[in-house]
UniProtKB/TrEMBL annotation:
Superkingdom: Bacteria
Oxidoreductase keyword on record: yes
Molecular function per GO: oxidoreductase activity
Protein name (database record): 3-oxoacyl-[acyl-carrier-protein] reductase
InterPro entries: KR_dom, NAD(P)-bd_dom_sf, Sc_DH/Rdtase_CS, SDR, SDR_fam
Gene Ontology biological process: monocarboxylic acid metabolic process
Top-level taxonomy: Bacteria, Bacillati, Actinomycetota, Actinomycetes, Geodermatophilales
NCBIfam families: PRK12826.1-2
Occurrences of domain Ketoreductase (ranges): 18-210
Length: 271
């Protein structure tokens, strides 16, 4: 066996026996996160909101690529607190446990501040920020009972820099920083209090992708994309898998000492 093969087989067992719920897991960055977690041995539940055709296609492709991983798909609107609680419970009922929650699903409804409709403001906050809160709340309860868990938020570089025409999106994505840090503090405190110190603990972190080649960017005109590429030091858009590898790193038991942090993956955009 070569050194590379040894490394690969070890890496493939990091999440063996773990169950992950990835919202928006049926396409784009979320689908890459599902594949990456499965490649480390995890069983995966992928959430989606309404595109059942894409969810079925994802499930078929995933099953073919990862026959060893038990996977399921769960439909629900994370803009609804009830759907958030129901889908978390569905995952636990289906797989028997929930070790890793990735709050990945997100939407945009871009308008300049002066043109922003009340409904576009509310909807983006409901889905991108409140959804992550309700899902985390439901998952945290279960994780604290078990004494271990990982929560990862997929925020955005726009949460750090703001973005013209994206006041709702930027506000929601930076709101995730406060959510991440507060959850991280409370989770650590509860684990300490319970005395359930198994060395794995419950950690909460956020990842801030830069511009990543997914359907979300399809509405951006090619000329604007060229302008964006010119601003990215590495000179290209990112790939979904480049976000996913940071998520599986954070999800590992061995990442127990990393909590409340924001991980930028953006080709150097914010330097
Ligand atoms: N792409 C980028 O450049 C970029 C950059 C920074 C941050 N991000 C963030 O990364 C995350 C994933 O982005 P992406 O580009 O992969 O997105 P995407 O390709 O548009 O996929 C979105 C996924 O989220 C699901 N979803 C949308 N609204 C939902 C809702 N209300 N309830 C439940 N699920 C919902 C979709 O389900 P359906 O298929 O059913 O619609 C789909 O699975 C988002 O949070 C985004 O803000 C993306």
């Amino acid at each position: 066996m070569t050194a590379t093969q040894v490394r690969t087989s070890r890496a493939g067992e990091k999440l063996l026996g773990r169950v992950a719920f990835v919202t928006g897991g049926t396409r784009g960055i979320g689908a890459a996160i599902c594949r990456s977690l499965a490649s480390q041995g995890a069983d995966v539940a992928a959430g989606y909101s309404g595109n059942t055709e894409r969810a079925q296609l994802f499930a078929q492709e995933f099953a073919a690529a990862h026959p060893e991983s038990h996977m399921s798909v769960h439909r629900g609107d994370i803009g609804s607190p009830e759907d958030c609680r129901r889908t978390v419970q569905e995952v636990i009922d289906r797989h028997g446990r929930l070790d890793i929650l990735v709050n990945n699903a997100g939407i945009t409804a871009d308008r300049t501040v002066l043109k922003m409709a009340d409904e576009d403001w509310r909807r983006v906050l409901d889905v991108n920020l409140s959804g992550a809160f309700y899902l985390s709340q439901a998952a945290l309860r279960h994780m604290l009972e078990r004494g271990s868990g990982r929560i990862v938020m997929i925020s955005s570089v726009i949460g750090e820099t703001g973005g013209i025409g994206q006041v709702n999106y930027a506000s929601a994505k930076s709101g995730l920083f406060g959510l991440t840090k507060t959850l991280a503090r409370e989770a650590a405190m509860q684990i300490q209090r319970s005395g359930n110190t198994n060395g794995i603990g419950v950690t909460v972190n956020a990842v801030t992708p830069g511009y990543i080649a997914t359907e979300m960017l399809e509405t951006v005109p090619e000329k604007v994309l060229d302008g964006l590429r010119a601003k990215i030091p590495v000179g290209r858009l990112g790939e979904p898998a480049e976000i996913a590898r940071v998520v599986h790193f954070l999800a590992a038991d061995a990442s127990a000492y990393i909590t409340g942090q924001i991980w930028a993956v953006n080709g150097g955009l914010d330097m």
